[in-house]
Write a structure and sequence with these properties.
21% strand; 15 strands; 17 helices; 37% helix; binds zinc ion; alpha/beta; elongated
Length: 526
């Protein structure tokens, strides 16, 4: 009885703090020790494998673009790891993708002086074979309308076309704000806004989009497409995919792109030479890697760890989503070691082709309705290397009850910085938990501290091993392993009753639960 009252008070307290501040400050741990929890913490403290795994996956295998041999090597590596840990794992094919392999790309300015440029080919860039293309450059001009652009088009023949604006500064905002006068900071920001608006207007007036313009320029005989997608930090660009089929598409870093742009504008007529090698591999299977520790009491109910396995390939995919991947792998390794007979089956999904639209997880949801229908909880992490600082009920009305209870077993130094919000809203996209929420299954996102993720590592050339914060990653491993353990042990199935979603103040309409979206099963060919 006393215990019940005590629990009720604790519960009410945690609720009120959760609602009042969205933060759970619970002070020193008074709960009785739990040996599984203790062993999880001890194993990660004394025997962490994440640095070794990170070196193998990020440095040796490299980025994991869908359809590349590296994605396949990562699959084989993960399957071997799980096998070595005594965990059964399999690759589940769910579609086909355009197979491509990145080769060398080398881009130099050869006139009016020689400079090797910091540049790289975009994903799926066509190969120049054993040729190096040397040509002058032309900047997308500011013309009146699509007819004027159509008349200009033939002049691109034999030239590289620069399709990105000139950034007025390569200094990130925090650097400007630290050293600049208020007036000069404002002036630079105004210049940038004006230049951005002007550039967007050019593309619009041309009658094309950023997607269709390179294709039109290719048709008009351009030698190649040169772009620069600055990510608003020092030395950092986002590297996405090429749209051209025959001519190279390369990204040149802000500093070198600006150099070329100014030389073209001043009439110095710079020339660059571009050499890109790559291999088309035809259609290749695309897959998820799924592993599991079979439940001993309720094997047909599932707790799932979740993180996408694929990445863009400008860097090594270290924080997007290498760290999420390793967090879940390491948690599985530890769970198998210290909790080998879970009540419910504990699974992990390493999804393919998240970057092209949550395709791997959407396919899993479509192909495994039984698992999804018996999901106790899914925990996904996919926003960088930082320690988890927020968790939402994702729109499930009673999620506060079980999530706060599961969290209560997490050591306070990890738990106290996790801000919870209930009932929250269901994931509409963004990462793979949304695929499960859309099907009404309880998929939760573990939101990380940002560590300048959006500017510096997300989809950039700098998403590399050195950006990983291993202390934070280890905390996340402990957190998710304990959550999985608690979800597995819970005497009750978690409620998936949906909250009434709020009225959107902008439209005055009731927010609707997101609808399931079909996976793209054949991708990269258009
Ligand atoms: Zn991601």
């Amino acid at each position: 009885m006393r215990k019940l009252i005590y629990l009720a008070i604790l519960f009410a307290m945690s609720l009120s703090t959760a609602f009042a501040q969205g933060r759970r400050e619970t002070g020193p741990d008074t709960a009785p020790k739990d040996s599984v929890v203790e062993n999880i913490i001890r194993e990660e403290k004394n025997n962490a494998q994440v640095q070794l795994l990170a070196h193998q996956l990020f440095d040796s295998i490299g980025p994991r673009l869908v359809g590349t041999p590296q994605m396949e090597a990562a699959r084989d590596w993960a399957l071997a790891k799980y096998k070595s840990w005594g965990i059964s794992a399999e690759a589940q094919n769910w579609g086909v993708w355009r197979g491509w392999e990145r080769g060398i790309s080398h881009i130099d300015m050869v006139s009016p002086r020689v400079r090797t440029l910091e540049a790289t080919q975009l994903a799926w860039c066509p190969s120049t074979g054993n040729k190096t293309i040397t040509a002058g450059l032309v900047i997308l001009p500011d013309l009146a309308d699509s007819a004027a652009y159509a008349a200009w088009m033939p002049s691109v023949k034999g030239r590289f076309v620069m399709i990105s604006m000139l950034q007025p500064t390569g200094r990130p905002d925090d650097n400007l704000e630290q050293f600049g006068t208020t007036e000069s900071v404002q002036k630079i920001k105004d210049q940038r806004t004006k230049a951005t608006d002007n550039w967007n207007a050019r593309i619009k007036k041309s009658g094309y989009t950023t997607r269709t313009l390179p294709v039109a320029l290719e048709k008009a005989g351009a030698a190649g497409i040169v772009s620069s997608y600055w990510s608003a930090g020092f030395g950092v660009d986002k590297i996405f995919g090429a749209y051209t089929k025959k001519i190279p598409s390369v990204d040149i870093m802000l500093e070198d792109y600006g150099l070329l742009y100014r030389l073209v504008e001043s009439g110095a007529d710079p020339r660059i030479s571009v050499h890109t090698e790559s291999k088309e591999r035809g259609p290749v299977p695309t897959f998820n890697v799924v592993a599991g520790i079979r439940g001993s009491e309720k094997p047909e109910e599932y707790v799932m760890l979740s993180a996408h396995f694929d990445s863009w390939d400008g860097g090594s995919g270290a924080t997007d989503n290498g760290t999420g991947t390793l967090m879940m792998m390491e948690a599985m390794r530890i769970l198998q070691k210290v909790y080998p007979h879970p009540k419910r089956t504990i699974m992990v999904g390493h999804w393919g082709s998240e970057e092209q639209g949550l395709n791997g997880s959407r396919a899993f949801v479509e192909d495994h309705p039984d698992t999804v229908g018996h999901l106790q909880a899914l925990f996904n992490q996919d926003n960088g290397t930082g320690r988890v600082i927020n968790m939402s009920g994702q729109g499930y009305l009673h999620a506060y009850e079980y999530l706060t209870r599961w969290l209560s077993k997490v050591p306070s130094d990890i738990r106290d910085s996790v801000k919870t919000s209930f009932p929250g809203t269901p994931g509409g996209g963004g990462s793979d938990f949304a695929s499960f929420d859309a099907a009404g299954a309880p998929g939760f996102s573990l939101g990380a501290l940002n560590w300048a993720y959006f500017n510096y590592t997300w989809h950039t050339n700098r998403d590399t091993y050195d950006k990983v914060v291993f202390d934070d990653l280890s905390k996340n491993v402990v957190l998710v392993a304990i959550l999985a353990y608690m979800a597995s042990e819970d005497p009750n199935r978690s409620s998936t009753e949906k909250a009434v979603l709020p009225v959107n103040p902008r439209t005055g309409e009731q927010t609707k639960w997101p609808a399931q979206v079909k996976a793209i099963r054949k991708g990269g060919f258009d």
